[in-house]
## 1
Amino acid sequence: MRKIIQFAKESYAELRKVIWPNREDVISSVKVVLISTAIVAAILGLIDMLLLLGIRAIF
């Protein structure tokens, strides 16, 4: 039981050291993720469409 309590205390101490992002940083990061996800999805969709057209042309 002593080790569990020590682990909890050390974990809490480490969490106190973390520099948490503010609201603006989080919103900015979310925008970057959404935009990059949309770009990658568009590129993969285009590649998929081109491959499908190529396969249909062959067969």
## 2
Amino acid sequence: MATAHRTRERQHRTPDNRNRYYVQGNTVRKFDVTREMEHKPQPKVSNRTRKNRDKAKHMSAGYVLFLCAALVASGFILVNYIGLQSDITNSVQHISRLEKELNDLKLANDEEYSRITSSVDLEEIKRIAIQELGMQYAEEGQIISFASERNDYVKQMADIPQ
């Protein structure tokens, strides 16, 4: 036969004259915490503390206006910031398009220069200069060499002697 285990409850009085139960055994009886909280006395609050709490619950008109002004200023700053970011993005895209166009123009210019230099026949120019225009090569006495102190340019101060 199975033996039932009984729990024993003992009542004990606390200094504040409330009954407390001690339970011996493997089960605990339900304890009504909400009733305990309702009967718990509220601590006394001073008038000054109560007034401060009431004042903290309500916002004055000046404080509300200050918050509204701060909100408007923040919104204005954020809208301008987003506009500046958009302008920067557009400028970067425009610069990259211009750089691409510059590179294309440089490539086209180099190709045209190569085409022109390859089409020039120096022998034909020499033949036209000598035969048709009567040009001659310089002779030994016509070439004058001189030393320059600087390499950037030479300024002629008088006629070259013959």
## 3
Amino acid sequence: MNEFFKISEKVKTASSIALKKAEAKFSEIEEINEYNQQKVLSAFVKNGISESMFAASTGYGYGDRGREKIDEVFADIVGAEDSIVRHNFTCGTHTLTVGLFGILRTGDTMLCVTGTPYDTIHSTIGIDGKGKGMGSLADFGVKYKQVDLNENQKPDLPAIKAALDDTINVVYIQRSRGYETRPSLSCEEIGEIIKVVKENSNAIVFVDNCYGEFVEKIEPTQVGADLIAGSLIKNAGAGIARTGGYIAGRHDLVEKCAGRLTTPGLGREVGATLGMSRELFLGIFCAPNVVAEALKTAVFAASLFEEFGFETSPKSTDKRCDIVQTIKLMTADNLIAFCQGLQKGSPIDAFVTPEPWDMPGYDDKVIMAAGAFTNGSSIELSADGPLRPPYAVWMQGGINFYSAKTGVMLAAQQMYEKGLI
């Protein structure tokens, strides 16, 4: 490795130990990868995908066969009645917003059962007055309630049951941890929440599935979720899709969301693909393998920093429910050094030195390392965290394990050079 990157003996030795410890987990990841890749291939074969479906449409985009077929393919992959997969979802938050506005109406109540949701969705919902006057759900008379996690940082099923009544219209589940150190949710755990909801209400269950696609053999739609949504510049686009998102689930709900994405009455029948279809199809096809590479990166990072005495979540031997790896670095200097080192291992903008800044949508200064081919892509190696205790870093992505492994080692090397490990 020293032929290309200067890595200390301390970091190299810890890396070798970490890799050995990770072997069993890597084997599990590859088994899931093979299963999911066959599932995706089967959906492509079943739906007769051909090169003609990659053709660009313009203007209204009427009769775009590729646009219609990608919806069918993705619905089959996630075990849903229907889906809408579009490049004109601008990000994960936009996709979730379209979903919420598609299924909620004035006077409805949304109940989030996984504690406080991710920072960027606060303005959409209108939490703590955010988004006021800008078209938040609160502006439109949608009420918000929340059930906090229990003392073990898990969904509080008895409290969820107690919060359910005829006034709850949508139950919102965030699968990933956001900027929290709580564990992400497995599909099995999501299914347990859904069972409680369905037994005690008529509410629609909507799952924020960001960072969770293809991590397990099933998706939340296969354990009873009525609707799921996610970003194509995270797992489901494999670093190939340059933008976009998806919503999948019950046909009637997907239709409502399509009407919100475009206009009521036109829905999914309009929307020029502008030559984007090929990369959306290819991204979805490659997603299982790329997610596996990201998961191996996360396991390695956990294993390496455990060697240096840091607390990780998940631990290197834990079951994985998303691609996100949290490392509690405990000081601002550690957090900054980690991100600056990781940046040095990025294929794009390796020469840049990340600094904490006031990032839109966040309450604290955030430092972010990201050298991606697609701006903001979270399936490519990146790491970020707010400058607040416990100064944890949230690392995700890695479309190629060996490159990402180098980036993680350079993060450790930067800390070593600063005398922090």
## 4
Amino acid sequence: MASLIAFDLDDTLYKEMDYVASGYRTVAAELARATGADARTLFEIISANRPLGFEAALEYLGEPAPMSVDDMIEIYRAHTPDIQLDGETAGVLAELQRRGHRLMLITDGSPRHQGAKIRALGLERFFAPEDILISQVTGGDKFTTVPTDIADARARRDGISRRYYVGDNLAKDFLWPNRRGWTSVMLLDSAGRNVFPQDILAAPAEYRPKTVIDNLQSLLNIP
């Protein structure tokens, strides 16, 4: 029998810091074009001074400023991400799809930013358009019932009783799946690269996942 398996995007299907680095490289390249400075040096300054990296780059370049911080933020937000889905993740998604599971993507953010990531990662191969739930499109983020309401309705329509949510963020990923009787699964940040640290013991009980895995291959044990 098929299950509904919903995934978070950032720091679950790829590392969000790869997206951040991609944006910083784009901003550094634009600054280099405008000033003749070395793009690699600018990238290192921006990265080392996060979250005030753009200000640090402008201080390094001196007056007159080639652009404003707001200009740099817009370049960052508008850039085409240089990110890839790793082979293991793609293989797991393909196998779950082959087995007939209903795959959904639940992510907070705007269609502009999250959509750019989804296209760069090629996730349309695994998730039907109606099963990609972006909070600014659906009208509710993970702190609301909206994503799980939509997923539960589709599970009922398709006669699916087993529902899983796979994520990483203890602050918001597992609360509503837990309350709705889903199996919540946290992908462990074994490399320590996630934007948000994972401290299960510090999280309230309702926010904790029901199970923890250290690689996505473990999902292939789902019946």
